[in-house]
Amino acid sequence: MQVLVDVHMSPQEYTQRFREVEWPVLETCPVCGARARLLGHGWYSRNALPTREVELVVRIHRLFCPVCLRTVSVLPSFLLPFFQHTARFVVKSLLGKVKSYRELLRFHWRRFLKNANRVLAFLRDLDMREHLPEDGKERAMKLLGSIETSGLEMFSMLFQKHYHRGFMAI
Questions:
Q1: What's the CA gap between 150 and 3, in Å, rounded?
Q2: How far is CA 80 from CA 21, 111, 133, in A?
């Protein structure tokens, strides 16, 4: 299981200041729901790609539940669960604001379009009342714009907390 937290840092700052991050104390296990303080359980390395040109290796903090004996990864909010590219890169490439690889862009579009209805429902719950076009791609672009302007990292964390999956997961 993965939990997103806001570290208030860019990916580059995070790689340099990983040891300074104040990690949240989880009193309830997100896996089993037990009310038990999760214990620190080390870290692991993972790729984070904020641009086409920059490749970072970031550390991911892990916690351990003493009840269900499962681990929980604590991801910084600039990452998406199971994606190497950062949330900002994915959304900006879908909006056409940064250059991406053709196949990667297709992959991201397929993923986002499969989740578009769930994203729309979540944005409606957050009180988004804009009229959306009927066309699928135009509708998706409008949703992506709303996600970007409302605060991408916060949206990603709230979506993850509500659905227990990232907004790009299938």
A1: 20
A2: 19, 12, 27
Radius of gyration of the chain from its Cα atoms, rounded to whole angstroms = 17
What pLDDT does 33 receive?
Answer: 93
The Cα 50–Cα 53 span in angstroms is 8
The answer to whether 35 and 28 are in contact (CB under 8 A) is yes
- Residue 35: DSSP 8-state: B
Order of strands, sheet of 56-64, starting from the edge strand that comes earlier in the sequence: 2-5, 71-76, 56-64, 39-48
pLDDT, position 118? 92
Instruction: Give the pLDDT confidence of 128-155 residue by residue, as tens digits.
Output: 777 777 777 888 899 999 899 888 999 9
Please answer whether residues 153 and 69 qualify as being in contact, where contact means their C-beta atoms are separated by less than 8 angstroms: no
Instruction: Kindly give, in sequence order, each residue whose CB lies less than 8 Å from that of residue 127, ignoring residues fewer than 6 positions away.
Output: none
Please, are residues 67 and 36 in contact by the beta-carbon 8 Å criterion? yes
Integer Cα distance of 65 and 34 in angstroms: 9
Going 106 to 94 to 45 to 68, the CA torsion angle's sign is: negative
pTM for the structure as a whole: 0.86
- Whether 39 shows a pLDDT value over 90: the answer reads yes
Map tokens 């056409």 to a residue: 96
